[in-house]
Amino acid sequence: MNKFTTSVAVKVPAFAAFRPLVPELEFKNLGDLADGSMTGPFVYVLVESGGGIIYIGKSDAETGTAGKRALSYPKWSSEYLAKVAEGGWPDPIHDPESADFTLAGWAPIIRFQTLHQAMVKVASVGHTDANGRVWEARLQALSGTLTGLESLVGGSGWEFKPGTLRDAGYEWAWERLEEMQEAGKLSA
């Protein structure tokens, strides 16, 4: 790990223990959503390889084949990895001294999800008393109550969008780091 970051221990909900807390939701693998047999709206969680929930999201799509956000994680991850391979430069997560800062333009959640090999688990909420947005808030609150974190990665508006304050902040950060990289000032 580089000198610009440090590791901290945090608690995230264990997916296996979280599921019984919401018995009205039956979480399935992403393939079950992709075949179109599930009806929406949906709520989903990203589960890292050790079984911890790192993100809770929703899709108000009516059918599984329209649940684009949940279905897109593997595609986005693959595209991101292809960009890393194409450039031959590391992501700033790994090495800011020789990093390709254009990789930082990818949504942080995609970079993090890819790094931690997170799987998507999805549940229909169409048979319940609430839509995807309400279930997302409920699950985030449940996570926040149990761990102090609603989500390990992101939150509302996790993508930076051109013309927004978030976009301007990211642009500033990339420019600053690139300037320091070029000037050889990134050794901490």
Total E-strand runs: 4
Output mean pLDDT: 82
Estimate what percentage of residues fall within beta strands: 5-15%
Largest sheet data = 4 strands, antiparallel
Distance between termini? 12 Å
Which structural class matches the secondary elements?
alpha+beta
Q: How many helices does DSSP assign?
A: 6
Helix content: 25-40%
Q: Give the radius of gyration.
A: 18 Å
N-to-C order of helices and strands:
HEHEEHHEHH
- Side by side, the strands of the main sheet go 1-4-2-3
Note the overall shape: elongated
Low-confidence segments, given as residue ranges, are none
Oligomer: single chain
Briefly characterize the structure.
This protein is an alpha+beta fold and 188 residues long. Helix content is 38%, strand content 11%.
Topology:
Elements: H1 15-18, E1 28-29, H2 30-34, E2 42-47, E3 53-59, H3 68-87, H4 108-115, E4 119-124, H5 132-147, H6 165-182
Antiparallel strand pairs: 1-4, 2-3, 2-4
Helix pairs in contact: 3-4
Question: What does this protein look like?
Answer:
This protein is α+β, with helices and mostly antiparallel strands and 188 residues long. Helices cover 38% and strands 11% of the residues. The chain contains 6 helices and 4 strands; from the N terminus they run αβαββααβαα. The protein has helices spanning 15-18, 30-34, 68-87, 108-115, 132-147, 165-182; strands at residues 28-29, 42-47, 53-59, 119-124. It has a 4-stranded antiparallel β-sheet with strand order 1-4-2-3. β2 and β3 (53-59) form a beta hairpin. α3 packs across α4 (108-115). The protein is elongated.
